[in-house]
Amino acid sequence: MPKPALLCVSPSFAPATTPTAIRASALVARLARDWDVTVLTETPQNRTSAAATSVVDTSAAATSGAHTSVPATAGPRIEVVPARRPTRLLSLLRRMRLGKLIELLVWPDESIFWVRPAVRVARRLVRERRPEAVVVFMMPYSAGLVGLALQRRADLALVLNLDDSPTCTDMHPEFPSRLHYRLARGLEDRYARRADATIYVSRTNLELVRERLPVDARERLELVRYGADPARFAAPVASAAPGTSAACQPAWAPHPPLAEPQRTPGERFEIAYVGAMSGWWTLISSDGESANPLKRAYDAWTRLGRHSLIELDPGTSSPAVLGRAMLGVIAEHPDWKGLLELVLYGNPYPDDVVQRALATAGVQDVVRVLGPAPHEQMPGILARADLLFITLPNRLDGSRGGRISAKTYEYLMTDRPILAAVPRGENWDYLEDKPGVWLVAPDDERAMQAVVSELAQTKAEGKPLAFDRSALREELSYDTRAREFASVIHRAIAHHEGRP
Predict the structure, then answer these.
(1) Closest CA relative to residue 107, chosen from 186, 4, 215
(2) Tens of pLDDT along 237-258?
(3) Which one of 86, 106, 136, 407 is at 20 to 30 Å from 256 when CA atoms are compared?
């Protein structure tokens, strides 16, 4: 019996390493066991990803004759549709420091230029593949418009997966204007009212949206969290000096290694953070250059008319607070100098920005920053670390946050201690009862110092801590998440068939 067809729309997809791409790719690979899945994406495919899929490139270069296709051995069929962005114009505006105009005029995001070509290709795919449903993975939020267009024109069940709510104040504490906030809220509400199912990854955000929707739309909100792949985390990891694996070398020159004699991996206490931090520019703004009158005027212009919902502390999304805590530990234990190190893997920011920020914060002696590494290498990075670090920006009004870091679930797949510097809210609540997790406020330097001192001391005594989280593996597994996701798709199809 042939598999039922499913069309998935995900502008960000493997081999991209955004959280949405990782989630969409993991779920689609598992859904393809029971569905004939076609993926519509903007992400170019490399030979590795093409080896397990059928890739059709609809770019101008590829379509000068006919679609180029790589025969599939397994997995979904992938159609690559490039966006028609006015790239030169957008680049010119950024070079002229007029990014504010892009914020004001390009809505809801730059992927709006992908919507029209994506709809055109998607309509052809609907005729050819006859899917039972359309699943859209967001961010970016423009992708949902593709789903609405197909639902209206092809009469298909629609499932919208919102990784982060467009109105989540942890992700979007401010907007270019009050109008842009109203547009974002209106778009999210429209998505939830029109879709046959809308998926969130945060219960807090789901409940906030549920409160403002009509009763019939509330019933179609679903929670399917992020996950991780147990098989990858169960694989044996070859020993290597922390942060020195050739596989983890950055795309740009990293912050220079700490100047000290070579030591064996067992002597160093490494704290690992995987992913991008966003607080670098906040640290730099305090280094004196911001006193420049022209810069102050430019900053005032960029903030003109902005609509703020909540004030976050971007500096807590940086290594500054933990770095100072580590320096405090070294002050208490001078013989540990050179042994404590916070290593950031996956930083996309320029090296000069990073080095200025580290120097301004005074933590350059205990922090090393490495560039992007393939997501497949993360289990090895985490397994080598002595402590895993999560941080989210502090909410200065003390209100509850709705965001939960995607790395939460992958960290929990390990046996490593976890230091979570997160505000009260979704991420805190989820981690509160998990073994081997130390929860602290994002700005609590003293609490971080106590945790690092305690764990480093246990390692120095030859008794490094590890935690058995095997009971969580089934819950965290993307196999489980895919089953939850498939159930949502079936409910969405049933709802669509029952529409008047």
Answers:
(1) 186
(2) 433 333 333 223 232 233 333 3
(3) 407
CA dihedral in degrees (313, 315, 318, 322; nearest 10)? -90
How is residue 355 written in tokens? 């080095």
Amino acid at 485: F
Are 428 and 422 in contact by the 8 Å Cβ rule? The answer is yes
CA-wise closest residue to 156 among 146, 166, 141, 142: 146
Closest CA to 420 of 304, 348, 322: 322
What is the pTM assigned to this prediction? 0.85
Closest CA to 77 of 98, 54, 100: 54
Tell me the Ramachandran region of residue 479: left when phi exceeds 0, alpha when psi lies from -120 to 50, beta otherwise.
alpha
In 142-266, the DSSP E strands lie at 157-162, 174-175, 197-200, 221-223
* Total count of domains within the chain: 2
Rounded to whole angstroms, the Cα distance separating 60 from 62 reads 5
CA distance 500 to 333: 71
Contact 198, 192 (CB under 8 A): yes
Place of tokens 């001078």: 334
**Coil, helix or strand at residue 439:** strand
The chain-wide mean pLDDT, for the chain, equals 86
Domain assignment of residue 363, given as a range:
230-474
Q: CB-based contacts of 34: which residues, under 8 Å, 6+ apart?
A: 3, 4, 486
- Structure confidence at residue 289 (pLDDT): 55
Q: Which two tokens stand for residue 58?
A: 């609809």
Whether residue 153 contacts residue 180, with contact meaning beta carbons closer than 8 Å, is answered with no
Residue 76: which CATH number?
Answer: 3.40.50.2000
The encoded tokens of residue 27 equal 């779920």
Residues 417, 281 within the same domain: yes
CA dist 153 and 386 (Å) reads: 54
